[in-house]
Amino acid sequence: MGKHVVCKVSELPPGERKIVTLERRSIGIFNIENSYYALKNVCPHYKAPLCKGVVTGMTLPSKPKEFNWGREGEILRCPWHGWEFDIKTGKSIFDPHKCFVKSYEVTVEEESESVETFEVTVELGAVVVHI
Amino acid sequence: MTQNQAVKLENKNRKRTGIIDCDVHVSPFDNDEIKKYMKQPFRDAFRFWGRGIFDNPFTEVRPDAKPPTGGPIGSDPEFLREQLIDSYGTEHAILHPWIYADYYADPDLKAAICSAYNDWLNDTWLSKYNHDGVFKASIVISHQDPSLAVKEIERWAGHPHFVQVLADAGARAPFGQRHYWPIYEACQRHGLPFAYHPGSDGLGSNTPFTPGFPTHFIEWGTTLVCGFISHLVSLLTEGVFERYPGLKVVSLEGGSAWLPAILWRLDSHYKSFRFEVPWVKKLPSLYIRDHVRFGSQPLEKPDDDKHLLYFLEMMDAENIMMFTSDYPHYDTDHPREMFPRNIPEQMKNKILYENAREFYRF
């Protein structure tokens, strides 16, 4: 249980993801518009590698025959059966209360040890996952 | 020692793993691999159209099953072995290319497509990719012109690794009708089961299985079981298993939870309308265990595992269901994840292994 520095901020730009193993758990870290989210890389359905799925948007709930596309970049679809999950919460779209994947807190912290005396910017921050 | 005797010996000495996968899909690396087996004018006429309006709108494939070498899913034997055969511990996998030949209207073109895929399977997955005999496959046929289908069956019958005949469940008439009987005669003669699997169901030159066309893929995928129900009821009532007592049939990817209710309904009708079909000598449901097997995937799962166990018991799954993963398609089932935790061991082992081993005599 603890804090794990997974990468530099510059290594995980918006729209990208990174899959790492922390404390023997495979975890996917996502950058959505410079906010970071971490989900367990295991689909609650058949234990598929959920975080390898496509990151996309979704058709928002609508009246019959209306289509409203939204939440682009916030939805993760399992690579096996295509189940949709909210990356920000880990909850499934079809049944958020009963079907969800574990999510972890992510923070950005300034790197404490810097070898040279560069000016510290967000670029040099570290993405930290809290398990 | 003949090749068949060698394969029998190889099977006898094989390590028993407890899993036989009766539906795995493979693909050529590129279309030219298939085209090279086709003569003109069919070589140019075959455009790999797929299933037209009901191609999967999300993804046909499991994205994590794309080989690192860059080809389409199911095209790289080493990767397939690593991801499926070795990781699941599969003793045999029965391979099916997905070709949708019956989408087309021309029976000669359909037959040419099927022949080319069989040649390709024979030269690749069943030989140079198959040093240990793990891979088996089905002889793919088109059923529109049964005489051409029989010719194709005759080309491969006796092959040590072609273990059954495979047809598209998409059709112009239900499978019990006499139009198809020459195919069953050939299957019986050669001891090859007749399997059917979704393909161009209700599409292309096939008749719809619903009243008109559904609007969405979700409807098509849910209701295609209507075609499977029609085929099974037709096979049972037309007396196919009386005429061909050695015939075995395999229903793949067409669901199974409907089976108990449909058989109750059919048996109930039989009690009133037996006079219409006097060649059916017993309650139709009683033909199932001797003649029909069901692929497990996609297992229709209620929320409560207890209810799934009821269904498995009601459909006699212990004796008629065989494990299918449908790898590498999006709706794959996993042998260690699909069943309820409290499924009886014997039922699980028979579904994952023993039923197929006995059925295909592996």
UniProtKB/TrEMBL annotation, chain A:
CDD domains: Rieske
Keyword Iron listed: yes
Segments forming domain Rieske: 4-115
PROSITE patterns: RIESKE
InterPro entries: Rieske_2Fe-2S, Rieske_2Fe-2S_sf
UniProt-listed Gene3D superfamilies: Rieske [2Fe-2S] iron-sulphur domain (2.102.10.10)
Matching Pfam families: Rieske
Keywords: 2Fe-2S, Iron, Iron-sulfur, Metal-binding
Domain of life (superkingdom): Bacteria
SUPFAM superfamilies: ISP domain
Record's protein name: Rieske (2Fe-2S) protein
Provenance organism: Peribacillus cavernae
Automatic annotation (TrEMBL), chain B:
GO molecular function terms attached to this record: carboxy-lyase activity; hydrolase activity
Entry keywords, A to Z: Hydrolase, Lyase
Signal peptide annotation: none
Gene Ontology CC terms: cytoplasm
Pfam hit, one: Amidohydro_2
Family annotation (InterPro entries): ACMSD (IPR032465), Amidohydro-rel (IPR006680), Metal_Hydrolase (IPR032466)
Membrane-crossing residue ranges in chain numbering: none
Domain Amidohydrolase-related per the UniProt entry, residue ranges: 20-362
Coiled-coil ranges (or none): none
GO biological process terms, semicolon-separated: secondary metabolic process
Keyword Thylakoid: no
Protein name: Amidohydrolase
The organism of origin for this protein: Peribacillus cavernae
